[in-house]
Fold this sequence. Notes:
Oligomer: heterodimer
InterPro entries (chain A): TPR-like_helical_dom_sf, TPR_rpt
Radius of gyration of chain B: 35 Å
CATH topology of the largest domain in chain B: Immunoglobulin-like
Number of helices of chain A: 34
Protein name (chain A): Trafficking protein particle complex subunit 12
Strand content of chain A: under 5%
Number of helices of chain B: 3
Structural class of chain B: mainly beta
Number of strands of chain A: 5
Helix content of chain A: 55-70%
Distance between the termini of chain A: 64 Å
Radius of gyration of chain A: 34 Å
Largest interface: A-B, 161 and 134 residues
Region (Disordered) (chain A): 71-188, 275-324
Shape of chain B: elongated
CATH superfamily of the largest domain in chain B: Immunoglobulins
Subunit structure (chain A): Component of the multisubunit TRAPP (transport protein particle) complex, which includes at least TRAPPC2, TRAPPC2L, TRAPPC3, TRAPPC3L, TRAPPC4, TRAPPC5, TRAPPC8, TRAPPC9, TRAPPC10, TRAPPC11 and TRAPPC12. Interacts with CENPE.
Keywords (chain A): ER-Golgi transport, Nucleus, Phosphoprotein, Repeat, TPR repeat, Transport
Shape of chain A: globular
Strand content of chain B: over 45%
Largest sheet of chain A: 2 strands, parallel
CATH class of the largest domain in chain B: Mainly Beta
Amino acid sequence: SNAKDAKSTLDEDDGRDIVQQKTEEEILFHEETIDLGGDELESEGNETVSEDSNNFVDKLNEQMMESVIISDSPNNSEDDTGELGCLQEIVEQMEAKDNQKPQGEVDKEEFLSNESETEHEETPKDISEIGTDDQASLKEESIQEAVKEEPKLGNNVPVETKPNNIDESKPEDQILSPSTTKPSSEAEPIPVCTIFSQANNASTQPQLFLPDGFEPQMVKSPSFSSIIETPVKSNPQVVQPSPSLSKFFGDTVNTNTLASDFFDSFTTSNFISVSNPNASSSVPEQMSSLSDGGDGSCASSNPALAMQNGRPEAGGPPSVEITQSPKPFSQIQAVFAGSDDPFATALNMSELDRRNDAWIPSEETRNVLISVATQQYSTVFIDKENLTMPGLKFDNIQGDAVKDLMLRFLGEQAAVKRQVLNANSVEQSFVGLKQLISSKNWRAAVDLCGRLLTAHGQGYKKSGLPTSHTTDSLQLWFVRLALLVKLNLFQNAEMEFEPFGNLDQPDLYYEYYPHVYPGRKGSMVPFSMRILHAELPQYLGNPQESLDRLHSMKIICAKILENLEQGLAEDGSMTNITQENRQASVQLWRSRLGRVMYSMANCLLMMKDYVLAVDAYHTVIKYYPQQEPQLLSGIGRIFLQIGDIKTAEKYFQDVEKVTHKLDGLQSQIMVLMNRAFLHLGQNNFAEAHRFFTEILRIDSSNAVANNNAAVCLLYLGKLKDSLRQLEGMVQQDPKHYLHESVLFNLTTMYELESSRSMQKKQALLEAVAIKEGDSFNTQCLKLG
Amino acid sequence: LIFAVMRLTKPTLFTNIPVTCEERDLPGNLFNQLMKDDPSTVKGAETLMLGEMLTLPQNFGNIFLGETFSSYISVHNDSNQVVKDILVKADLQTSSQRLNLSASSAAVAELKPDCCIDDVIHHEVKEIGTHILVCAVSYTMQTGEKMYFRKFFKFQVLKPLDVKTKFYNAETDEVFLEAQIQNITTSPMFMEKVSLEPSMMYNVAELNTVGTGGESESTFGARTYLQPMDTRQYLYCLKPKQEFAEKAGVIKGVTVIGKLDIVWKTNLGERGRLQTSQLQRMAPGYGDVRLSLETIPDTVNLEEPFDITCKITNCSERTMDLVLEMCNTNSIHWCGVSGRQLGKLHPSSSLHLALTLLSSVQGLQSVSGLRLTDTFLKRTYEYDDIAQVCVVSSEVKQ
C-alpha cells in the first residue's frame, strides 16, 4: 500500500501545484500596484511552476519520496515587526486555501491510470529542462541588464539639475501604473543598483583569483613548447672550459664580470661559484657595467673556480650523457689541496647544513645519487626527464598598476610624482633584492630575481636547457616564486615551477655535485620552497593536489623525526650527532612538520572541509603550543562562518581559559575580539561594536578593531560615523592602514554615500601612491 | 539628492595567503616580517589563513526563502542647497503583494548639503521569485519646487532547501516519517533546528540522537553543517494520541501529520527559517474490519502449538456481527473450532482474540488463513500474511 500511498500523494501534489498557480494568477489580476513588467512577473510564475514540475520528475525517479512544498516561512519569528503582522495573515490564508483545495481534488486524481502517469512522466521532464535553462538565462540576463543599466542610472542621478526630467518621468509612471495587465517588460527596464551590479563582474570568481590589474602574461618561450625536442646545439661536446667561461677568464677576468659574482652568497659554502653554459650570452650588458665597479671581494680573494659540470648532449634526446671529464676534477682537487684549509670539507658539511638540507629522496633518485657518488669517473646516464631545467617563462612583469591608474585618473603630472624603486634603481644583488621586497616593490623584486637568474643561465627561454644548480640559484627561484604567489600571480608561478617537477630530481641534491659541494648532503631545495610548491595548486583550484603534496611532505618529515629518535642522522645514515645537535634537529623538524600541518589545515579550510580543517588545526596546536589561543580563536571563527554559533562560543570560552593564565595586552585583546565576533554571530551589531571599541581603548592603533568597529557602524545605519572612523584611521597611520581590506570597505562606503565617490577614491589613490610599492593590489580601490 | 542602496549581508572575514620562509633562506625573516606588518593577519599566528578583518559584502549575493533581506538605504544631499520635507519610502514588490519596509513614514524636515538620511530595512523573505525593491524619494527644493524620483532594485529569491518525505507505517499504529533535507544553496548551512510539529492527533519522538550513557549524541556526529548539495535524513516516530488511537476509525484516509520547522544559519549567523506545508499521509486502508496482532512469539517449535493474540477492530460506520473461520494452509494449522461466533461489534470498538496454532514446516512461516464474515452484509474479509514466525525443530531450540 506504500506505493499506492506515494502515488496518490504525488498526484495530489500535482493538483496542488495547479491550485497554487491559480491562486497566484488570481492575485495577479487583482493586484493594482504592479506597475512594472507585469509580463515578467507572470513569466516568473510560470517559472516556479516548472521548477515544481522539476520536483515532480524527481519524485517520479525516486518513486517513494515526496517533495514537500515549502510554503512560506513561519509567522511567529522573533524578528518580525508589528507591521508585518497583517501580511502574515494573508499568507496564512493563502496557505490554508492551498491545503484545502487539493484535498478535494485528490480523489479525482487518484483515478489516474498507470498509462496516464507514464505520459506525465515524459512531459514534465521537458518542461523542467526548459525551466532550468530559463532560469539560468534569466539570471544571466539580469546581470547583463545590471551592467547595461549603469549609464542609464547615471542619467537618472542628477535629478535636481534637470528638473524637467522628473516631470517627464512622472507621467510615465502614471501611464504605466494603470496598465497593470500587460506592460511590455522590455520597454521599461528596471534600473539596478550600481553597487550590486559593479560587483557582479567579480562575483563569479572567488576573491583569490581576482586579477590585480595585471593579466597573467603567458609569454611562451619556444623552448617551453618543445622542451624535449629542442636539441641543444650550441653546447660543446667537451666540457673543457666552456666558451663562455673562457671568454670571461680570457677577456674580462680582471673586471670580474663573472655572472656568479652577483650572488651574495649567504651559506657556508660560499666560495664556490658555478657558472652555466648558458650564462654568458644572456648576461645583460647593463648588469655587467653595473658590476664593474662593484664588489669583487669574493671573487678576487678566492681563485673563483668556475666549474661547469654541464651535461652536454651526446646521444639522442631521451638521455643525457654525463661525461665528467677528469680534467676539471683534478683541478678542483688541486684547488682544495691548495687552499691550505684542511677543514674546508668539514666546514662544508657543518651541522647546520646537514640539519637544514636533510631530505629523503625517492628510491629512484637515491639510486642515481649513489651511482654519481660511486662512479665519479665513468659516465652516468640520466634520463633528461629526470633533470631540472628551469628558465624564466616570462620576461618582465614589471609594471606599476598604481601609476597606470594615476595616469588614467589624475593625469600625467600627478603620475610623474609617483616614484617607486624598480629593478634598475637598486644594487643588482641580494641586498637590492631585499630592499625591493621590504619596500613592497615585489614586481620589481620578481624582475630582479629574473635578472640574477638570467645571469646564472636560467633566464628567459632557457627552460629545457641543461643547467646546473647552486644553493643560491634555488634560493633565487624560491624568492621569485614566493613573490609571484604573494602577488596572486599563481598561473605564472605554476608555469615556472613546472620544470622543477616534484622537487625530487637528482640534480637538486648536493650529492649530485660531489666536486662542487664535496661531502655535502641533502637537498638544495629550501624547505619553504617545498611548502610553496605544495600550496600552489590550491590557489589554482586544485586543492586535492595540494593535499597530496603536503601529505608526502608530512611523511618525509615524520620519517626524519623517526630517524633522529632512533639515533640516526636525519636521512637515516649512521652519523654521530651530539645530543645537543640532535635536540636542535628534532626541534627544527618538529616545527617543519607543524608548518606542513598548518598548510594542510589552511588547504582544508579552503576546500570548506571544516571538520577536517578543525582537526588539522588541533594538530597544529600540538606543534605550536604557543599559538594555542590564536588557533582556538581561529577555530571558533570557522564555526562562526559555518553558522554554528554554539560551538564557536565553546571555543571562545576555551580561549578565555587558556589566556586566563597569561595576562598581557595581546590575550586581553583576543578575548575581547572573540566576544565581539560572538555578538556579531548573534546579529547584535551594537554589542559587537561596543567590544571592538573596547579594544581600541586598550590599543588605539589596532587596525582590525578599528576596521571592524567601522563595519559594525554601517550595519547600525551610521554611514557617516563609519566613514569618519575609517578615514581617520587611514589618515592617522597610512603606512599601516592602507590595507586592501580597509580600502575596500572604504570605497564600498563611498559608493554608498554619494555621487562624489570617484573623487574620494582618487584621493585614496594619491595616498596609496605615496606609501605603497608596486605590489599594491589596486583592485580594492574599485576604480576600474 | 543622491540615492543609493546596498544589501547588507553579513560581512566576511578576510583571508590572506601566507608565504613564509626560514631564517636561513635568502630573504631571512623578511617574508615573516611582512606578514607580521600586514594588519589582516592574526598576530602571533600569521600562518593562519582565516583573519579577523571584516570586509563588507562585495555583491548582492544570493537570497533564499526564509532569510532576512537587509538593506542600507542612504539618501545623500550632494547639492549645495538645503532641501526640505524629504520623504523616503521603500516598498518591496513581490509577485503577489506589495509591502512597505520603511521604518519611519514621517518626513524629514530638512537636509543640509552633504548630509544624509540613513535607514536600514529588514524583511523576512516569504516568497520565491522576483522581488523588486521600490524606493521613492520626494522632497521640496528651496525654490519651492517639488521633486520626486524613484528607483527599482530587482532581485530573485531562491529556494534554499529541498525537502522530501516518506512515511513508513508500522504494524502498530505508529508512523515513521523520514525527511530528506537537501541544501541546494551554494554555501554550507548549519542546521540549528529541524523539528516536526505534529498535528493534534499525534505525539512525536525525534529519532535523530543516539543515547550513550545518558548523553545523547546526534546521529550526524560532529558534522553539524550541510555542505552544498548534501542531504540529511531525519527520522521521526509519530504515535497517535491515546484518545485517537482508541477510535481507530478516526485515523483513516488522508491525515495531517504535522509540519517540519527548519532553522538554519550560514555565514556569521545569518539566519533562515522555513516551515513546510502540512505533511499529509495516506493512512493505510484497513477496510471495514481491521485485524492486528497484539502478541506473537518470534520463534516457535516445530509441530508444537503456540498462542497469538489478535485484535479485531470495526472500522466501519455500522455494527457488525462477525463469524471467524480458520483455514489451514500447507504449513499453518489452526487449533480449535472454525466458524465460531464472535458476537456483535460496534463501530470503532474492538475485541481481543486468543488463538492457538502450530506449524508443520520449518523455517520462516507466514501466518495466514483467517476469515471474518459479517453476517449482516454477508461479506467476508480475508486475512493472509498477518505475521511471520520462525519455526525451528525442537532439538535446535534446546
